[in-house]
Amino acid sequence: MIWAIGIYLAFLVVVSVRKGRDVKTQEDFMVAGRGVTATFLVGTLVCTWIGSGSLFGGAGRAFRNGFSALWMSAGAWIGLAIVYWLAPRVRKIAQFTVPDILETRYNAASRVFGTIAIIIAYLTIAGYQFIGGGRLLNILTGIDPVYGQIIIALLVVTYTIVAGMASIVALDLFNGILITLGVIVAAPFALKAAGGWETLTTTLPETHFTLFGAFGAASAIGLFLPTFLLLLGESSIYQKFMSAKDGATARRAVIFMIVGVIVVETVLDSVAIFGAGVYWNDPAFQAEGGGISQAASETVILTLGATGLPWIVGALLLIGGAAIIFSTANTFLMVPSTNLARDIYQRFINPEASEQRVITFQRIMIIVLAGVALLITTQFRSILAMALYAYTMVGAAVTPALLAAFLWKRATPAGGMVSVATGILSTIGFALWVNAGHTMDWGFIQITADTAYDYIIYPAFIMSVLALVVVSLLGKPPDPAKWRPFAPDAD
Known about the structure:
Layout: H1 2-20, H2 26-31, H3 38-49, H4 52-65, H5 70-93, H6 98-105, H7 108-141, H8 145-163, H9 165-193, H10 196-203, H11 217-232, H12 235-241, H13 247-279, H14 294-297, H15 300-308, H16 311-349, H17 355-376, H18 383-397, H19 399-407, H20 413-435, E1 440-441, E2 446-447, H21 457-474, H22 480-483
Antiparallel strand pairs: 1-2
């Protein structure tokens, strides 16, 4: 099946080279010239969200814990409903990045802190796309996953630096179709391989089919909140809104994105659960100390595609998996490189830089950031842990201040700035605490090495919101010029 993946990857590079010829300005490279239609915007929005966090982290959680894993996806579904309302207002402000919005509403320091949060989060997300790609190549060819990660990183960098957002948007509709077809076609065959529904419910624990699963409501909500809050502060989503030709286009795209994300993620987790029925007692999926291996369970979709399904169905599923990895990886290199080029280099270092110089700087940053993302992959136990950490970094550091920009006129520049900084420090602090080996058992909350990141959102988000509210209320009300562009009557 490696030949099918090879053809797909070659196609990506060819299209990006062709689109690269049309890139003339900074706007072309960063936001695809602000001329993206609703159809293509839907494709790129769905592909942005459905990444290795879903393909590996979410699917692995579904393998181990069943349908309660959908709480992680449900956060995005609810978040998208709120984004539907915000979309045209974000598009109306017509900036390139979320830190642009933070500076407009608060101050330059908020821009810098927002940029730092987004870069940390997005490099973590890009990093686990590389891990996923390495696992894909390992399953298909036997190559060491570490070398596979490097190969995938090189391909993604090549694809991204040539045409930027223009190539991403152009191909994501195609990628979205591949992803949707891959998982929908695979689902009935995976259920058949598991012996049918009756056999599946006998093979797997009863908690696989309950609302909150084996870990209870606190863990389920801990999965829900990071994706919910990430979606509300998702810089790549807003950057793509800014690529739309108008606000109505952005809003229509969100409606269809909601449908697409619900369908794809529900079917994807279902396929993983069917895969659990196939491999539950397979020694390759067992941990040394007993139970299910977290790392092995995260490969269930690819393992099914390579060995557990008819070859045509498996090939389609693997190509869909490759589309998930590449369509997400390029976006999550594109956004932080845009932040560095726009929010740091152009804003503070070289304000008079020509558009071509800014584009060149951004292309160099894409290469550098890919290298940093590879280093980040060595710091986490699993893709799910990386996903929840990254989601919380944005959801706790950026989302409270971003939502307050639109919803709370009393939010002050100091309040927004301190909120973003507090979210960053709280998220990093919890991660350091977890990586030091700490656990906790309060009865209703049990923090272990495997479930610690289920709870990271609680301290980080609470601290960020408290900082925003307290600092804002202690200071003088902001100048109306700060909040007026974000008010509903400005639409």
